[in-house]
Amino acid sequence: MTVLGNLALWVAFLVGIWGALTGFAGGLLGRADLQQSARHAVFAMCAALVTAVFALEWALFHHDFNVEYVAAYTSRNLPIFYTWSALYAGQKGSLLFWASVLSLFGSLALTFTSRRHAPLLPYVAGVVCAVAAFFVTVMLFAANPFARLAFTPLDGNGLNPQLQNPGMVFHPPMLYLGYISITIPYAFAMAALLSRRLDTDWLVAIRKWTLVSWLFLSIGLLLGMWWAYVELGWGGYWAWDPVENAALLPWLTMTAFLHSVMIQEKRGMLKKWNLALVIGSWLLSVMGTFITRSGVISSVHSFTQSPVGYYFLVFLVVAAAASFTLYARRLPLLDAEARLESMVSREASFLFNNLLFVGIAFSVLWGTLFPILSELVQGTKVTVGPPFFNQVNIPLGLALLALTGIGPLIAWRRASLPNLRRQFAVPVTTGGFVGLILLLGGMRDGWALMAIALAGFVAATVAQEFARGAHARHRQYGEPYALALARLVGRNRRRYGGYIVHTGILILFIAFAGMAFKTETQVTLRPGERATIRSPYGWTYRLTHLGISQYDALNRQVTAATLEVERDGKRLGVLTTEKRQHVDGLGRPTFQPSTEVGIRSDLREDLYVVLGGVVNGTEQAVFRFTINPLVWWVWYGGVVLVVGGLVVMWPGGGSPAVKRVQAGYVVRLVGEQ
Amino acid sequence: MLDCTRREFFGLLGGLASAALYRPLPPSAAQDSLPGTGPSGRLFDPARAGRPLPPVTARDNDAAIQVIEKQLKCTCGCNQDVYTCRTTDFSCTTSPAMHQRVLQLADRGQDAQEIIDQFVRENGVQILMAPPKRGFNLAGYFLPTVLILVAAAVLVMALRRWARAAAARPAAPAAPAALDATAAELERLRRELDSLPG
Ligand code: HEM
To answer: Quick one: A511 and A533 in the same domain?
Structure first.
């Protein structure tokens, strides 16, 4: 099967190069035969890469440990679920996954893009082929997933226990889907630049794709947080790790793009900026893959361990240079069709929104790269950990939250004073009121207090928008309020979907604020002994150690401690936390023992229990008890955000601007130029 | 527990407010293990439970020690602070050793800052979870925020200029002020147009 895999990679490589050449040449020369050939090349590449994936999965499922990748990431007793996901557990497999999903997305884009955008498609095919061919090149010449060992081990290493978690099965592909799908908007942007078709039309072609990748990236980030929380055992979900930051960066720039694109649609402004954002987001996503897969930031030395880092570096530099050169040459075609008229307008608020998103992205990038910079500039290595990132980014994040409330309240073009007063009265009062209650209630953590007060403000703006809209429909069409609300959202999915996304964001901010009140205690207990801990809400938890049991499971030896949990005298149930010693098919230990956390969640707080180990080989156990307020709201907020994203994307509810363009005429409001 | 009553939901904010009233209990009160309950049973295979651990002492939970350890980076390569590492990865032997060192320095009567300084002297500044605010590190802390503020100021100035230019343009009569409608009415009209199907 590895022969088939290698063959498929070579076919993909050659077809990719052919597709890139014919795509660009066909577009530039206007030759239909070359254009058609490039299109077919994307489909052929997709078929070849899917075959390669099939070959690797075959080797994984048949335990062909002579294949280095199979031996490194699986073992005979690895559950099937994780054997499948071993495809993207390692660098080589992820490269294959990246390339194949890209060619799949490329095929979908070529198939489903409307005929109206036909002149862009050859270039899109060219870009997709070129990028996918790069990934195949890396595999063929530096990181071949089908490489064989000189000998055949009896069993493989097995998968890192921390990756043996359902969150880890879905998190990487979602994140990759996000990273990869940005290539499609990027390809359309390049196509628009190359073909000089820089009207608003190309935006219509890529907006959906941008939303798709934004949504995948959001889901990927959220699942990553969930995985970190339930699996890593340190009691939090975000550590400002370079790998996490790398995923956050394109998310920030894409969110900026989703907003600034509205100005281009409605007013024909910010064309240059939008193109730069698409190109920048794509470069960041490739950098994200590179950082995730090379570990270059945490240690510069890992760079030299494999040549893959150099391939990526060269690719990034070449791609950035090519994209921005082309961009610079087309700048004269990208002049704005209108000018801003007032500082107090929706357009202006979007400019500040973009400034903050890009500013925060810069700040995260700056912090992530700062250890390297410091080493270069002052010759000393410094550590840039969570305290640094929190200090720098919490104020920026809160400014963003405030703007999330302010922006939608301001009218397009120019807002008048009475209009502002009418819009802001309720939200500002609500925010102030929430802040006051918290202050009177004794909350003294300034950042947390501000976050929740601002969240109250934003919640009120969203509620006000929904209430006014529903009320207007109720008055105008006599619809009952529930129906009016449903129709309001249904008829204007972008706007109200966007507001649902904003609701998700404000819930997330409240949840983040909860972490300011986290408490941690370590305890040693013998069976029958109890520990008492106070929660930030003033409740008293009693945890009674019931005992430890040891048993064998499929690929691990489990040591499980069980605790009975009571809160304020009321029994809540039992919690189990485990130590797992993973073993291979021959019973030999693989990896260090790992920890399974016991979590009891409710809306207010999580009780998070970790078994540290045992004393003197007895049932006397060391535990860590953490109380994490409001963590569930991260997952709720995430779900709301994703639902909002789906509403925005749902077909048929496109923006009025899009509909007007599609209808072939443009309605101009009185007074609009 | 996924289900939540409305009362629980509304209790949330109040509950959060009371959070600030919480004062951590002294460590000795935080665990009321019954002393002298006799030896615990031996495990079938203690090796499976990871590295043997010593019992937790009251000082391991000392809030002041926690604060210090959260500023120091564990040198085992985990990228976590000493406190988080020693209470998360129980197979690591580096962070417990660093914890002992912190306790030792505290026993010598050093205060938090002195202990941290001592660690920096012994290990260099990278032992700190966040670089000290001096020299080039100041750029690390403040450059992004300063740049954002400068960009915001430039944006405000540019917007002012554009707004003035827009006001001076002859097209101005077409602005809402000259219409027989208020801005609010126009906004409503715009919304209604937006919500028309097709
Ligand atoms: C983390 C923060 C934010 C996220 C994740 C977010 C996300 C979104 C999304 C996905 C949409 C729908 C976009 C579309 O239809 O294509 C949207 C709409 C919108 N966003 Fe945001 N946003 C955020 C912050 C902000 C900020 C700071 C502002 C301030 C200017 C803002 C103003 C708006 C407005 C006015 C709309 C609706 C536009 C319309 O009428 O269709 N958002 N947002």
So the answer is: no
